[in-house]
Design goal:
globular; 8 strands; alpha+beta; disordered N terminus; four-stranded mixed sheet; 184 residues; two-stranded antiparallel ribbon; single chain
């Protein structure tokens, strides 16, 4: 049975008295990938097409990350291991122990024990990032650092982290306040 045992039920319909959320339809669409290209020669891709495809692929990656448990190495105080780069504090997260081991070896620390916590990506983005950002440094998540070609960055921007931790939300609020000052 597909869709959690609700086979044959249309979106919003009922199966045994249980309504199926329309959100499930959107989730299924994002997992299916972008819609197929129209038949015939579509011509060269425009920069808008490339940007739209990139946004879609990142949205799928972000959704998968949010639903997946990742390994977050910690220090002696059980604080997530971080690295600062480009004015952003990045929390290191790894998709599996092999990726964490590659990171440790790349740092020249493969011989020591690496304690870690297992957290859902959603919890890392929605709770841990804002807690680290509260000290005044923007914070994002760096996934699988040290694994060539397979890493991903989840920066501290709206749509990825909560508005309270998003650097662009603060900039938007400042712009709104400036606009109010001009009108006021």
């Amino acid at each position: 049975m597909e869709n959690g045992g609700e086979a044959g039920v249309e979106a919003g319909g009922e199966a045994g008295g249980i309504r199926r959320s329309r959100l499930l339809d959107y989730a299924e669409m994002s997992e299916a990938g972008p819609p197929p290209a129209p038949a015939g020669d579509p011509g060269p891709l425009t920069s808008d097409d490339v940007a739209a495809r990139g946004r879609h692929e990142f949205a799928v990656l972000l959704g998968e990350f949010r639903r997946t448990a990742v390994l977050v190495p910690t220090d002696a105080d059980n604080t997530p291991l971080v690295g600062d780069f480009g004015g952003i504090r990045w929390i290191y997260a790894f998709s599996n122990e092999s990726a964490l081991a590659r990171f440790a070896i790349a740092r020249g620390e493969g011989g020591r024990e690496w304690p870690y916590q297992r957290l859902l990506g959603a919890r890392l983005l929605d709770a841990t990032v804002p807690a680290v950002s509260a000290v005044g440094v923007p914070c994002g998540v760096a996934l699988d650092v040290g694994t060539e070609g397979e890493g991903a960055l989840f920066p501290p921007v709206s749509g990825i982290v909560p508005e309270t931790a998003a650097v662009d939300a603060a900039a938007d609020a400042d712009a709104d306040a400036d606009a109010e000052g001009i009108r006021g």
